[in-house]
Amino acid sequence: MELLLAIAIMALGALVLGAALGFASIKFKVEGNPLVEKIEGILPQTQCGQCGFPGCKPYAEAIAKGEVDINLCPPGGMEGVQKLADLLGREVKPLDAEEKPKSVAIIDENTCIGCTLCIQACPVDAIVGAAKQMHTIIAPLCTGCELCLPPCPVECIRMEPIGENIDNWKWRYPVVQIKAAPLPARDTSTGGGMKEAA
Amino acid sequence: MLMNLFKFKGGVKPPTNKTQSTGLPIASTPLPSRLVVPLHQSIGGMPNPVVKAGDKVLKGQLIGEADGWISAAVHAPTSGTVVEVAMHVQPHPSGLDALCVVIEPDGKDEWIAREPVDYKSLKPEEVRERLQQAGVVGLGGAVFPTHGKLRPAKTVPMEELVINGAECEPFITCDDLLMRERAEEVVRGIGIFRDLLQPQKVLIGIEDNKPEAAAAMRAAVDALNEPFLVVQVPTLYPAGGAKQLIRVLTGKEVPASKRSTDLGVQCFNVATAYTAWRAIAHGEPVISRLVTVTGNVHAPRNYEVLIGTPMDELLKLAIPHPDTDGIIMGGPMMGFLVPDMHVPVIKATNCLIAHDDRLFPPKPPEMPCIRCGACAEACPHELQPFEMYWFSRAKNFGKTQEYNIFDCIECGCCAFVCPSRIPLVQYFRFAKSEIWAREREKNAAEGAKARFEFKQLRDEREKAEKAEKLAKAAAAQAAKKAAEAAEAAAAPAAPAAPVAPGGDGLPGAVDPEKAAKMATIQAAMERAKAQREAAQPKNTETLTAEQQRAVDEIEARRVVFEANPEQAATPASEKTE
Question: What's the complex ipTM?
Answer without folding.
Answer: 0.76
